[in-house]
Amino acid sequence: MAGVSLHIDMAEVTERLGEITSRLGNLQPLMERIGAVLLLSSQMRIEQTKKAPDGSAWTPWAKSTAKRRLKNGSAGGGLLRFQGHLLRSLNYRASADSVTVSMGGSGKAMDYARIQQLGGDIQRGPSSRNLYYGTTGNQLVKKKKAKRVKTVNVGGYVIHIPARPVLGLSDDDVSDIREVVNDYLVVE
C-alpha cells in the first residue's frame, strides 16, 4: 500500500528555539528595557498627563494652595512640579528577574513622595507666630519695617493630601511591556 509521507526539517526551528532559550537565561537586559518604559511613563504623569495609572485625573490643589502658589510664583509647573525634586527622584533598578521603579530617595523627599502616591494626613502641632504691624492701625508689614510686634498662638491642625499616584501600571504600560517582551524574544 502506497502512502504519503512528509519530512519536515526542524533544524532551523530548533536552532531559533535554542537562541531564544539562551536569551531567556539572562533577563536583566529585558528588565532594563521594561524599567525604561515604566520610568518614562511615570515621568509623563508628572510632566503632562496629571493622571493616575488607572486613568483618573489627580485631585487639583485646594483653593488656598492654588492662591498661595500663584501669589509666591510657584504655580508654574503645576501639580507635583514645584521644584522638580519628585520628577528628578524617579528611577528604576533592574535585576535578572525583576524591575523596581521608585521615587523619593530618602528623608523628606521620601516622605513627600509617599504622601503624594498614597495620600494621607499631616498633623501640624500648635505653634506661635509673630505679626508685624506698621505705624497705622492694623496694617501688617515686613519684619524690618515693623513698629510693633504681636505674638499669636496657632492651634494644631491637619492638612489632608489626596493621593496623586505616579507609580503603577496603566493599560498602556501593560501594552508597552508586552511589545518590549515580544521585541526581545525576536531573534534576528
Describe the structure.
The longest helix is centred in the first third of the chain and has 22 residues. The chain folds into two domains: 127 residues, no CATH class; 36 residues, no CATH class. The protein has a two-stranded antiparallel ribbon. It is an alpha+beta fold. It is built from six helices and six strands, in the order H-H-H-H-E-E-H-E-E-E-E-H. The mean pLDDT is 85.
Gyration radius (Cα, Å) is 28 Å
Low-confidence stretches: none
* Spatial shape: rod-shaped
The string of secondary-structure elements, in order, is: HHHHEEHEEEEH
Average pLDDT level: 85
Number of strands: 6
* Largest β sheet strand count, sense and barrel closure: 2 strands, antiparallel
Give the termini separation: 45 Å
**Residue fraction in strands:** 15-25%
Q: Strands, helices and their partners?
A:
Layout (H helix, E strand, L loop, with lengths): L10 H14 L3 H22 L13 H10 L12 H5 L1 E4 L4 E4 L5 H11 L1 E5 L2 E7 L14 E7 L2 E5 L9 H15 L3
Antiparallel strand pairs: 1-2, 3-6, 4-5
Provide a quick synopsis of the model.
This protein is α+β, with helices and mostly antiparallel strands.
Features:
single chain; 188 residues; alpha+beta; two-stranded antiparallel sheet; two-stranded antiparallel ribbon
